[in-house]
Amino acid sequence: MNAEQLSDRLLDFAARIGKVVDALPDTRLGRHIAGQLIRCGTSPAPNYEEGRAAESKADFRHKLAIVLKELRESRLWLRLIIKAQLLSERRIRLLLDEADQLCKIFGQSLVTLTKRKPDNQ
Description:
Layout: H1 3-23, H2 28-42, H3 44-52, H4 57-83, H5 89-115
């Protein structure tokens, strides 16, 4: 997968998060999760784009770490939506799977970046 395809996947993820947020019930818990999820679920795409334009390898690594952190948080909120029965698991399952896949991609990217020797950066 190239950088442009990964960027598109993150953009699709953000759009799908927006739809889930709009479908959440207008309850105290629903509003709380919506606010949290819209922030963390839409931030990986722009953070990745910032990383692609990083000024250094360290800056790139930092931006990827932020992307992973926000994806992990998004995954947690999606799991809570299911656990609290705010939306059906059937509705969230594919998005949760995408969050898992993206976490693995960015997690492995960070492992690879960390293993590289400083002169290979």
